[in-house]
Structures are given as structure tokens and as C-alpha cells.
Amino acid sequence: MTNKRWDYLYKTSNQSKISELAEKLKLPSAIACVLVNRGIETEEAARAFLGKSISGVHHPYALKDAQKAAERIKLALENKEKIVIYGDYDVDGITSTAILYQFLSEQGADVDFYIPNRSDEGYGINMLALQKIKKEGASLLVTVDCGITAVGEVEFAKAIGLEVIITDHHTCKEEVPKAYALVNPKQPDCTYPFPDLAGVGVAFKLILAIVLTLGYSAREYFDKYIDIVAVGTVADVVSLTDENRIFVANGLKKLQNTQNEGLRALFQTAGVADKPINAGMISFTVAPRINAAGRVGSAQLAVELLVTKSRQRAQEIAQILEEENHERQQTELEILKDALGMIADMEDADKKKVFVLAKEDWHHGVIGIVASRIVDRFHKPTILISLKDNLGKGSGRSVKGFNLFDALTHCSDLLLKYGGHELAAGLGLNYSDIDAFDKAINAYAEEALKNVDLTPCIQIDAELQATDLTLAAAQAVSILEPFGMGNPQPVFAINGVTLTAARTLSDGKHAKLTVTKNGRAFDFLGFGMGSLADQFHMGCKMDIAFTMGVNIFRGEKNLQLIIKDARMSVA
């Protein structure tokens, strides 16, 4: 196991505020402690956080240019103009395209959608696609989850007679496109109170703005698309706070009994149709199958899955995505093996602060996933580059404390293009510039990254005693859901337990530790931590960092304790 730092949040928490929240909201002290650790310190803020009410959704017109965009789309509806939605090929872009296409179709619009091919066209707007769209009769282009860096492309669109509305959520560069309307909460001059919407969230707010412009019920349309919005929001790993928390919480409720034929078929083929749908299931089961369309097949197919009314067609597409997801997994394993081999062969791997790895014909659709796996393993920012015809297409993932977008901006003279977020970004460059880019970004990291940033950190929300480990306590934790970026599943610590048994499961892959404290015995599971069973001797005193949840097996609910880290007791 990688050595991890334990950051005891509860040791610096305001104990009086914890006690006050626990008393006023009738909460267990540990839950109140988690809230305070999240910066939720008042009764009003806590009730809003726990309530997840749609009354907390901000007015769509508060987004800069949203009303302007809505009025232009209303005019296009009235004049029967052809509208084309230009999306991205990941889950965020696919769900964004699906909800806007479905909404405009239901308004009687002459509407189509276009998603570029990941391998042939790459991310974002391209001029050949714009020519094709214009040739087919469109006069209005609406982007979703892309477009904020397409300065030249928007000028070209205007020159050939295409008016452009951009909806995006990616970080803005110094120059932004001169589109008819630009809807992005990250614009420096946008005063929207929540800048962390996913692309699907921005597209959803545009729909709500159009709804208000048309004089319809916003609540009706909120309920209509919120299941798909939840899928895209979770999949894009944005902060599950503020509006995103409301979207996902309400969307998860609808997903339990969704009427969307595509999602129902997807749940069926994935084998989760009869299981509770939570954010984790979307992240690890649903999203990869939708993503597989854009990674190894056609993202157009995934949009069709989400908008089709035919159960038979939905089942056909879901089966195709299931097969493509299996293909994606195999390709991913092959690239991971290559990448780990490259790192093993590096003479200076330990000194590198950023891994930059490149190889001919790596599948561009999965290198981002592999980069994430390498970050998980080494806790270092990682960029994988697929080479073809002397050009490289790269995808990077980062660690907290290293803004990947800023790093790429610093190295922009070596790049043909780039874009993304703090923790994930894409780039393009010439093959001849890869070594220089590797040196440049590592030199930047030497200044920007401290050694402590490269050590994985586990943040401990609260220390629990043996009497706290109950099914009721685990059920209380669930009121803090949905969990994800910005609202991680709480991690607790129990200190000074005695190890009484240790064994491995699934041919040594997982570990099961039995410990005792104050006369009580508990089982802890360490998924992917089989080596734990041999690291500690029987009778030793241990500290365990863990999450607490409820496992349902054959209809019976049981306490489940999942190890995040374990070490010899420091007390």
C-alpha cells in the first residue's frame, strides 16, 4: 500500500458549532462534524444541504447571455429555422445533446445534432463539420459542453452564415469567441452564483431559460429531464455541491423508476435494473457504458439511446454499448500495461513530478482513463499522448494542488491546442515537441508542486468509538448523499483496535480483517487490499480509516465497514 498522510479534520473543527448543529437538527455528533468539516456551519445552511430542495436552484436568466440565447432560439422556432446542436463525445456532452435535442424536438423544431468523431476530428468545433452543417441548411448552431476556446471556428461559422450560441463550462482562455451568445458560468464577467455546473447543467439551464421565455412551467421541465441531467453531472466529476447536489439528488430519485427507455435498457444490460441507483453506480457502471460509444464507437449512437421512444431500439443500442464497453476495457488494460512498463524503465521516475508518456497508435478514446489509473497508483499528474502521423493527441489527469489547465497554459507555446479543467485536460502537439513539453511541464511542476502534494492524503472526518459502529449510524450517514467531488463519502477513524483475524478473498485480491475493541468485534473489508492480510501480526494494535455504509444482501441490511487505510496504532 502507498504511504498516506492522515489529515484529522475533526481535530481542528469548531466543537461548539458541531454541538449546536447536532442539537438543533437532532443529528449524531459525527454527522454534524462532517457538515462542519464541509463548511456547513449554520442551521440554515445545514437544512438546505440536507433538504436538497429545488427551491435552491438559481434563476436561469442569472447566467450571462442565457436569456439572450433563449430569445434567439424562440425566434428560430417561430421562423422554422434549422437548428443544429454541436456536442462532445463524452457522457457530459452526450447527455447535454440528448436533453436539448429532445426538448427542441418536442417544440416542433427543425433540429439535428452533430458530435465529432473522437479519432478523426477530435474535441470541439471543427471547420469541416461547420461547412457540412451549413450545407445541410442550418442557420443556427448551439454548442453544448464545448466551444469556449473556438475563437477562429466561430468567426468561420459567422462568415459562412451560421449564427452560433455557445454553452460550455470549461475554463475560459484570455480570448473568448465572439458568438451571438456565450453561456458559461466560468466567464470572468458572469455573476452567476455557482460556477461549477457540468456541461449538461449549463444546457439544462438554457432549456429552463427557453421554457420561461415561452411561458411554460419550469417545474414541469425540471422534472422531465432531471434523470439524464443527473447522469451527466455525476459522470463529469464536477463538485456535487449547490445546484449540482440538487440536480443529482432529485435525478437519482427519478432514476429509480425512470421512464427513459434508453436508461432502462442500459440498467438491464449492465445487470443493475433491480438495484438502488446511486452516484457510485452511475460513475462505475452506467457512465462507462455511455462513454464507450464515444471512445471506441460512435457517440451519435449513445444520443439515440437517450432519446429513442422505442424499447426494442433501446435494447439493441444498449447491447452494442455493452460490447463496446468490454472492448474499451480490454484496450485500456493493454495501454495501462504499456504505460506502467514505460514508467518502470524510466531512470528518473522517482524524480519526475509529472509523467508524460507517448506511443504510436494508443487509442485516443481511452488514454484519459488510463491516465486516471496511473494517477491513482502513483499520485502524480499524468499525461498520455497517442501518436499518429507526427502529431500527438493527449489526455491528462492531475492531483489536488496542481492545476493542469494552468500548467498547459504555461506550456502553450509548445501546444497546437489545449483545454479542460484543473484536474483533467486535453491537448494536441507535434511529435517533435514532446520532449520539450515534458521538460517544460516538469520544470513548471518543480515550482508549482510541493512534495507534500505528491503524497496521497486521507481526510478523516471524525473519530468513532466501538459503540458508534452500528447499522443505525451507517443509515444516518446516507442523509449526506449524494457523494462525489466536493462532497466525498465521509471517512472515519477508529483507533487502537486489536487484530484478531485476517484473511484474503477472491484469490488474494481483497482483505477481510476482524478486530476487537472494548469487547466488541467488527469485520472490515479492504477491496483491492489483499496484501493487508499479511502486513499486521495477530494481536497488534491498529488504527483504521474507513467508510461506513449499508450492505443489502437477500433483502437483509447489514453494517458494512470499508477500509481506506490501516496502520499500526500511533497512540
What does this structure look like?
The chain is α/β, with parallel strands linked by helices and 571 residues long. Helix content is 42%, strand content 21%. It is built from 19 helices and 18 strands. It has helices at residues 15-25, 29-37, 43-51, 66-78, 91-106, 127-135, 151-159, 199-214, 218-235, 242-255, 261-270, 279-296, 299-307, 311-345, 367-378, 404-410, 434-448, 471-477, 532-535, and strands at 5-8, 82-86, 110-114, 140-144, 163-167, 181-183, 355-360, 382-388, 391-397, 417-420, 424-430, 457-460, 462-463, 492-505, 510-517, 520-526, 541-553, 556-568. The strands form 4 sheets. Strands 13, 14, 15, 16, 17 and 18 form a 6-stranded mixed sheet that branches. α14 (311-345) packs across α15 (367-378). Residues 460-565 form the RecJ OB domain.
